[in-house]
Design goal:
Layout (H helix, E strand, L loop, with lengths): L7 H23 L13 H7 L11 H17 L9 H16 L9 E5 L6 E4 L3 E5 H6 L3 H16 L2 H12 L10 H14 L4 H18 L4 H12 L5 H4 L4 H15 L10 H7 L5
Helix pairs in contact: 1-2, 3-8, 4-6, 6-9, 6-10, 7-8, 9-12, 10-12
């Protein structure tokens, strides 16, 4: 016969307490993932029974980020906020540039998706989970592949730095929607869509992305001067395009790039400067 410590009522209280702690631990583990309901409005037992999962912004995994990026991409397209350019040849061309740069980036272990947006504005942006968008207007404005690669590399730099995830975390805090377990997926997709189109990156994030793009270009064999020349040309135009105007200190970015190009460019990186070849490739856009 086992000797139970204390009275039977006290023993039952201890057992209930331990079971409750175990349930809380289990729910927290289950809570890291996707969600279909707002956790702050659900009871602990309901969450456990229904298997509801939410995103923990403080500890988001790569797979969760990729899943969110896919949701943001679908919302951008289905809502009509962007219109994809359907040209298999140019799509493959941009994807080839992007995959080459992503493979030598600081974050090559997630899938990347490179899309062309049908828009005459000179613009480019990225969202979490490896999604990069380049407008037809920007492709037409570039003089060679190295200049285009500089922009693509810069956007990959934002993904490598997980800048959109950090912006999403701050936006959720500002809006006061971070629940005890996390935030539901639908709400995060809405926040991510707003960030992708409207919220500029911070100065520090921009410079980090610029440097990342510059070094990735060199590792991929692209002439890194292409990043400098493209930025110089756009700033000199007198009306910086959207993707520069939403990033602070465009002229200072050029100065920083010139310094990098003068001191840290890879001498053997010379690919992508053939202007006539590039003009032939993007002739349908001009």
């Amino acid at each position: 016969m086992f000797n139970l410590p204390g009275s039977w009522p006290e023993f039952r209280k201890k057992v209930r307490r331990r079971v409750a702690y175990a349930l809380i631990t289990l729910i927290t583990v289950v809570g890291i993932g996707t969600a279909t309901a707002q956790p702050s409005h659900a009871g602990w037992l309901d969450l456990l029974i229904n298997g509801v999962r939410v995103y923990q912004l403080s500890n988001m995994s790569d797979s969760q980020e990729v899943d969110l990026g896919g949701g943001i991409n679908r919302q951008l397209i289905e809502s009509g906020q962007i219109r994809l350019f359907n040209n298999s040849g140019l799509n493959s061309y941009v994807d080839g540039i992007g995959q080459t740069l992503a493979g030598v980036s600081d974050r090559p272990n997630i899938p990347y998706t490179f899309l062309i947006v049908e828009d005459e504005a000179v613009n480019a942006f990225a969202t979490m989970g490896g999604y990069v968008y380049i407008t037809t207007g920007l492709m037409a404005a570039a003089d060679n592949e190295a200049e285009l690669a500089g922009v693509v590399g810069h956007e990959i730099g934002h993904i490598a730095g997980r800048h959109a995830v950090q912006q999403m975390r701050q936006a959720a805090i500002t809006q006061g929607i971070t629940g005890a377990l996390g935030v539901d997926r639908a709400r995060l997709v809405n926040i991510g869509t707003q960030i992708a189109l409207q919220q500029p990156a911070s100065r520090s994030d921009v410079y980090e992305a610029v440097r990342h793009g510059f070094y990735s270009m060199g590792r991929a064999g692209y002439d890194q001067t292409g990043m400098v020349s493209f930025m110089q040309k756009l700033v000199r135009s007198g009306a910086p395009p959207e993707f520069l105007s939403t990033h602070p200190d465009a002229s200072n970015r050029v100065t920083s790039l010139q310094s990098l190009d003068n001191s840290e460019a890879i001498q053997g990186a010379t690919f992508g400067t053939n202007e006539s070849e590039y003009a032939n490739t993007v002739s349908s856009l001009r």
